[in-house]
User: Fold these one by one.
Assistant:
Number 1:
Amino acid sequence: MKKLASRHKLDFVDTELHAIKQNNLYRKLNYGKVHGAHITINGKKLLNLCSNDYLGIPTTRIKINQLQSSSRLVSGNDESYRKLEKVLAKHKSQQNSLIYPTGYMANLGSISAIAKKGDLILSDELNHASIIESCKLTDAKISIYKHNDMKDLQTKLKQKGKNKFVITEGIFSMDGDMSNLKQITEIAEKTNAITIVDDAHGDFVVGKDGKGTPNHFKVGKKIDLYISSLSKGLGSFGGYVAAKNNVVDLCINKSKSFIYTSALPAFLVEHSLKRLESDREKQKKKLEENTKKLSNGLREIGFDINSKSQIIPIIIGNEKSAMDFGKFLLENGVFAQPIRYPTVPKNQARLRISVTAWLKDNDIEKALEIFKKAYVKFC
Ligand SMILES: Cc1ncc(COP(=O)(O)O)c(C=O)c1O
């Protein structure tokens, strides 16, 4: 009798990994040390064009004075939380705010607290994975509208739903364009829909005093639930929501990612407070200057750049070509990660460049030289 090849119960894991590799979608971790505009990987100093520390607020020493290990509803609710939540509520012109350990958890906790069975959620097709996962937790009907397409949104809002929600990013994380917030809030007003904005990439970066994308469009007061991250423009750590008192109260009482997890350590809360008080305007101006310089330079080379924000995607299409493009940049001293499915749709792989205020003029000139070579080789 033929002996069956011995199989291990975890062999399916190798099969799955093999399929991921075959499709050029395999991801592996790079270990590096970030220092200002640069990152060192395997002893090689590279220009870092994929940091979310957009404002590059100069680093201050963090005093690690407390490392609690408890939920905020138990004993993890340090006084510093009250201070930061007050400042963030004011920053968003909302009644109150609530801090979560990350932006991802702020989405999971707040969206699943506010929407439920019988409700209708309208979600932009390019919304971030954390929004998609959050919607799935709600038992509400989820209807995806075409990216920034207001006609499609209006049509889909005609569906039945006890409460209706429109959820969008402020600045889209992989495309760098802004949501049509002016029209979205008008449509929401007419249909009595609740507007939720995840502004992880617009917060602290755009609008007056960095108040974010809704403020940029002068509709800050029309947003019912504002969700953001402290780990990007502010360069700190954590996530938060800002809304009316009753919405924040509901989040405290229903958000599983708030109730059943340890609180962010108080020293990180204090770090955010310090960064909020820093000269963010100077950093914001430098970021705007750098963004203009780099995107205009890329356009002059011949790249098709539509984004006006600090997130500049160069769409390559094919996954393998995007990986080759990224490898070429890396070999030439520039670190810009290729982004592939499932982060973006299949065959829309891209280099996602993020500009920071860390970059000096000669950094941008050097980057453009390398991109020029890459254009000749790949485009
Ligand atoms: C749009 C959006 N929302 C939420 C998050 C999650 O934020 P955090 O990194 O604080 O978990 C991200 C992170 O990339 C994001 O791009």
Number 2:
Amino acid sequence: MTDFTGKVALVTGAASGIGAAITARLHAAGASVLLADVDAERLRTAVADVTRAGDVEAACAAAVEEFGGLDLVFNVAGAARLGTVLDGGEDDWRATVDLVLGGTYLGIRYGGRAIRATGRGGAIVNVSSLNAHVPLYGGSSYAAGKAGVEMLTKNAALELARHGIRVNAVLPGLVRTPLTAGWFDGGPIERDFAARILAGRPAEPDELAGPAVFLAGPDASYVNGTSLVVDGGWEITNYPDISAAVEA
Ligand SMILES: NC(=O)c1ccc[n+]([C@@H]2O[C@H](COP(=O)([O-])OP(=O)(O)OC[C@H]3O[C@@H](n4cnc5c(N)ncnc54)[C@H](O)[C@@H]3O)[C@@H](O)[C@H]2O)c1
């Protein structure tokens, strides 16, 4: 495991799921971590809403004040208010885009400024989604927002490189977290997912934390502005299984 001793990280969405798994890995690797989330009950550190610039700026300032600087930012906070394009709520659409895309923008903006101020460079990892590439029924706001995160990642990489800051994205497929818990009831949706995912199962949060932490670390020193799809081979199954015909 990479040694992150002496590194300071900010993780948004740290109270649950993928953010909690990233935080656990960073702690195990010796980093100091400022945890930011709206869930005050499950999180006893910084309570920050990533859609509010003041909260994100304050969380970055807290990391600098508490740990003496900022090196790494993980923009993980996210959720979706589903609704179809024709009949879903317009406020729900805006709120979801504001959270997944706007929240990531604020994390890059204020986190990037704090890293720049140290003068020693760093890395930012944004959690996008396979839905940046694959649409989700009722999830146009989420999918469009996550696609935006992928391009925002590239644009930020272009602009922040001069400060020694790399910016990359992770695109998870299906991960077993509270966000997706409603799908794991043994019913047809769960079975349909399993049939499409080559791994035959959803990921555990730590299986996303590993790639995310890799992108932030020295082993990824030459990786910049890219997207790492971590989906158990789901994206490539959008074709019927023709293996029987090929092998006949
Ligand atoms: N679980 C999946 O299958 C999956 C797939 C693709 C992408 N993702 C993405 O991964 C990220 C983490 O999701 P997860 O599955 O761990 O979900 P989760 O619900 O377990 O964790 C998300 C965390 O974000 C926090 N959060 C929500 N809104 C916030 C806000 N405005 N400010 C600060 N914190 C806020 C929540 O309180 C929660 O602790 C999200 O961006 C999600 O879109 C998840």
